[in-house]
Design a protein that fits this description.
The chain is mainly α and about 45 residues long. It has a domain of about 25 residues.
Length: about 45
């Protein structure tokens, strides 16, 4: 986030960023991470 602030992104905008994304499903591979993000999207 510091890097984005240095590039001129306001604290207001950065405050609206939700991170980290994804559910904690225990996966480590890129496919597992993608699945956890999609699962979280489905919950909203």
């Amino acid at each position: 986030m510091t890097n984005l602030q240095q590039k001129g992104i306001s604290k207001e905008v950065l405050g609206s960023v939700y991170a980290p994304g994804g559910l904690k499903l225990g996966g480590e591979t890129p496919m597992d991470i993608a699945f956890s993000i999609l699962a979280e999207i489905q919950l909203t």
